[in-house]
Amino acid sequence: MKKLLLFSFLLFSAFALAACGNNDEENSGSSDSEGNEESEGGEINLYTGRHYDTDQELYDQFTEETGIEVNVIEGKDDELIARMEREGKASEADLLITADAGRLHRAKSDDLLQEVDSEVLNENIPENLRDEENEWFGLTKRARVIVYNEETVNPDDIQNYSDLTKDEWEDKVLIRSSENIYNQSLVASMIAQDGEEAAKEWAQGIVDNMARDPQGGDRDQAKGIAAGEGDVAVMNTYYLGQMLNSEDEEEVEVAEQLGVIFPDQEGNGTHVNISGVGLAASSQNTEEAQKFMEFLTEESAQEQFAEANYEYPVNENVEPTEVLQEWGEFEEQDINLSELGENNGEAIQIMNEVGWK
């Protein structure tokens, strides 16, 4: 009898231990599953025309904080928009980052973007730097300024964009071609503020005073001044910031010869444009994509943007980098940047009519 009781006790203990073991395994499995869900925070596919190492550092930081992987597809801005058009609804794009509000407006007009309802974005980005229907949002700002040869030009002689059309600057103005979106948006802003006739008059005056046929990028206009091909040029601030801090000694030497003028400080203000982001209409990861957009507009990310590429932050709680602060504060054009895209067609037509190559 004692042997039978002992056997029953041992048998019961074995079943109990097995049951506990199964429960432990189930609990362990449940814990692992939850852990995987937290570490596998999803992913987003980012089509971007920005090609900066510091941007990738921000993406990596976002992944570390959220577990959301950022798959980066780089390309030229216009080519990425064309790719999204070809791919249509089948596109795997979740987000588009590109330079110039004109391009963002084009993407919106082609139904490539969708609305984002975010209090964070609305709070971090001023109203004029985001789409009126919340389909794109500014990430960084750059001003389109006048630079000049400090040895040959008195900056008091140039206060406005219109001063570049005066007879005294004949054969002295350097500027990029009419195919450049930055110049198209500059003319588009003039249409928005002063009308088509005034914009056309300005464009004609620029063509009349060009030192040479337009060629190259903004840096090439600066180099043209240093080479004596012209005395004044129009360029974006971040290019000059990059040149001043370049590893190329020639670029530094060129930039150090130039002064900066923020035009129209007593009038319409200096033309400002953006690089910005939009949520792709094809996105299958809208929640993750919105988190990423919001992350890029927070103060810490904005500081890194501004510091790395010499751009102005869109978040007004963040100070510009020291180089930009040295140039001083300035008044910006008071228009919603959506108008740059809305007036792009008219701007191109005007530039073609006046012979801006």
UniProtKB/TrEMBL annotation:
<protein>
    <submittedName>
        <fullName>Iron deficiency-induced protein A</fullName>
    </submittedName>
</protein>
<dbReference type="Pfam" id="PF13343">
    <property type="entry name" value="SBP_bac_6"/>
</dbReference>
<dbReference type="GO" id="GO:0046872">
    <property type="term" value="F:metal ion binding"/>
</dbReference>
<feature type="binding site">
    <location>
        <position position="51"/>
    </location>
    <ligand>
        <name>Fe cation</name>
    </ligand>
</feature>
<keyword id="KW-0408">Iron</keyword>
<keyword id="KW-0410">Iron transport</keyword>
<keyword id="KW-0479">Metal-binding</keyword>
<feature type="binding site">
    <location>
        <position position="238"/>
    </location>
    <ligand>
        <name>Fe cation</name>
    </ligand>
</feature>
<dbReference type="GO" id="GO:0006826">
    <property type="term" value="P:iron ion transport"/>
</dbReference>
<keyword id="KW-0813">Transport</keyword>
<feature type="signal peptide">
    <location>
        <begin position="1"/>
        <end position="18"/>
    </location>
</feature>
<feature type="binding site">
    <location>
        <position position="239"/>
    </location>
    <ligand>
        <name>Fe cation</name>
    </ligand>
</feature>
<feature type="compositionally biased region" description="Low complexity">
    <location>
        <begin position="23"/>
        <end position="33"/>
    </location>
</feature>
<dbReference type="InterPro" id="IPR026045">
    <property type="entry name" value="Ferric-bd"/>
</dbReference>
<keyword id="KW-0406">Ion transport</keyword>
<feature type="region of interest" description="Disordered">
    <location>
        <begin position="23"/>
        <end position="42"/>
    </location>
</feature>
<comment type="similarity">
    <text>Belongs to the bacterial solute-binding protein 1 family.</text>
</comment>
<dbReference type="GO" id="GO:0030288">
    <property type="term" value="C:outer membrane-bounded periplasmic space"/>
</dbReference>
<keyword id="KW-0732">Signal</keyword>
